[in-house]
Amino acid sequence: MARFKASLRALALAGPAFLAAAPAADAANADLDRLVQKAGAEGTLNVLWGEEFGASEGARPIQDAVNKRYGLHITINYAPGASMPQVGSRILLEEQAGRKASTDLYVGAETNLPPLMLAHAVLTISWSKYFPYITAEMETADGSAILVTTLYNGLYYNAQIVRPSEVPKKIADIFRPEWKGKIATTPYAVAFDRLALWKGMDVVRPIVQKTAEWSGGLLRCGDYDRLATGEFILLFFDCGRTDDHLLPIHGGPLDQVTLDDAAMTTLWYFAVPKNSEHPALATLVAGYILSAEGQKLIESTGTPGSQYVAGTSSYKHAADLKARGIELDDTKPDDLVPHQKELQAIREEFQRLVRK
Amino acid sequence: MRWGEAISVSGPSRLAGRLGAVKNGWNRRVLFVLASVPLAAVLVLLAVTLWVSLLDDPNAGLKSGLSLRHFVALYGDPFVASALLNTLGFAATAVSVAMVLGVAAAWLVESTDLPLKRLAYLLMTIGLLVPTFFQAMGWVFFLHPRIGMLNRWLMALFGLDSAPINIANVVGMGWVEGLGLASLAFIMTSPILRMLNPALEEAALVHGLGRWWTLGHVVAPLLQPALLAAAIYIGVIALATFDVPAVIGLGNKIFTFSTLIYVRVTPETGLPDYGVVGALSAALVVVSLFLSCWYFRVIRLAHRYQVVEGRNYRPMRTSLGGKRWLAWVGLGGYFILAQGMPLLMVIWAALLPYFQPLSIAALSHVTLKNFASVDWSLLLRGAINTLTLMVTVPTFAVLFGLAISWVVVRSRARVRFAFDLVAFLPHAIPNLVFALALVVFALFVVPRGVPFYGTVGIIAAAYVLVRISLTTRVFNGALLQIHRELEDVAYICGMRTLQTLWKVILPLLVPAILNLWVWCALLSYRELTMAAFMVSQHNLTVPVIIWGFWNTGHSGQAAAASLIFMAALAPFIALYWGLRSRANLESLDA
């Protein structure tokens, strides 16, 4: 947490200056020039993502923006892929088989990355050499991944059913007698594992048990239509807000809240597979998306930006939580690498509990 | 004494017979090779599946050690037993509903003088184009205890405190699944009913036995292999089906094997646990072996079911008389529940910014925005690959299926039952595991220079191998009903095996082949699990695009994309059924 606070403080002081200086720094960066040349020669970036960054609708603006910024004529080929864990698994297998990766640029959450890092299946890159605005807290210690999106785990609720005064602020507020059987949780018990690492099993196990008792069903991440229809009134924990088309700003019925006593992040990272067919272009596009301009672009597609880039919705939310004195857990892949087996055991226990 | 036996004793004929045997030997070898190639691939993939289940960390691939931990974890978990019970209850209900409705519809269409048959064919198959998650959502809207429209009306009408009907249980899920699978029962049994010779039925009726007694004691036993094959096939589909258990089951904490697998292979955290899924496949292989053995016991007495003979084969129609329109009421009711409602849900979802129950208030949100936001270039890429699969997969699946069924039913090779056993196995393995095995095979075995991994070819291969179970079930049933005397006559006339197959057997199998071809094409259009797992830039399919929308809460865009593709395909399906019906009617008239 101290690291997080220090990071925020450093960013608050130095971030804007960095960002303001970024274009100038780019211009004078010989390493970046070489990267741009290589990227231009590679020409095409093949990406296999879910609906991240606006899917196919979002790929075109990113392509145009990169071309404009670096004077290139690259193309981004988008294909809707399997889930982040499945694509991660494929990258591992492809790397072992010595084949080209299915995606030139991998997007994965902090829990998906450790197996790839441990297997050295992704390239380690000196990101700040090319992009000075990429600071230490935005990348993993070995440079194998950079943070592109910060999601806040909390709960999604149907704002047409849950009155403003009833919106839970803490975990205990969820367990209202009249909501018993009407709430949902995920079959994977998402986020509870990290909460257990943060608060301890003794604290979190009873919460999971009570959530199981109160929940009438299990919803997959992305199954938010089931909240919109009123089948369930809220989802706890949710998987983080990845899209805003169901939010009130777009006329939708759903809203999301971060809980004061369980404020946690889900962090999406970019990583370039070791056997990426177009590694330079992948590096360039990833680096660009982390710029203030790139972050603004992905936010326009409905995907939140990084908590470390000033001006993004995630940055503002982190600042808001900080101003309210709420402690935020933003566990990084490096923090999870030593705990892989422990996490797996916790997940399996919690998944058994939520099924009841 | 049979004709063949009489000829075999004459001198010159014996020489001709030997020469014929040499030529026939070559012909039969062609069929054996055609049958063996896909089955060898199935065995290799099964071996890969077993190997994956024994890997300590399947994601580590070749670097992983071997372990039984996945089997211990799976079969040591008492929750798996409850999921197994749910799965069996769900599958039994689904099979019962599908067989009753599907066979009844097939009988009405094929064996009676029901009017507007072309329309019936069309209605029974057009619903296959609707993604099944919309069907499940439709039933949630209709009968959910909290938001179900019917329950709300009933509660308001009778002043009830709680919902009188709940779809959210094992039987409810089975009912919904069975309604969808009735189309498959229809497709699998209608060719058999079409070929059924009514001579025995007429004989029973002439002797004063009642229509129901005749149906139960004469017609049903004749159809037993075909019905059993269809029931087993549908049962295994129900065991592995995901959509309905995911929408209705998970939403009410009712787990089946498929949802248990889903949670393991699509976790939000960590990486997929393929080892456990491989271990689960082992159990499903055992179940399928058991079902196959049961099936073999029935077809062991194959000659009992041969009713299409050379002499007095003249299919006839039962007259429904004044009840013809009553039959249409039943068919119409089925269509509204099983096909119409999901179609309505798709249209409704496509017109809304987010999914919501049917209501007057929701009408104010109706918009065409979902259609406007469709990425046409992406959809076109998917459509080209999907259409490629819809043409190639049925063609190869039918070709291989026919060769295998010929070996199983017509040859006297000792290994014929092994052929059938292996042909059924792909159906028992969860599609995702099959796809994983094929990916591992393509990555580590297929030479790098061969363009297979990441192409449409790998998806086509997976689909063909999986569909062989279906094509062999149908061809086995159809071949069993064609008496050997037709082939005997052809051989006596000097025809070789391939010629006989082409000129004698195939014309009789045309209805089955056409049905299978269309069904395999539709399944290729619908198949999602394997395509999503193997997706790359070069083999993107329409279902993967639609699932991408649905899976991220964009049900409106998913529905819009579905409707666009359905609208593009519907005229071709209507045209097909129109031509097919005309051809069949003309052939019958002749």
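qc> Residues 1-25 of chain A have pLDDT under 50 and may be disordered.
qc> done
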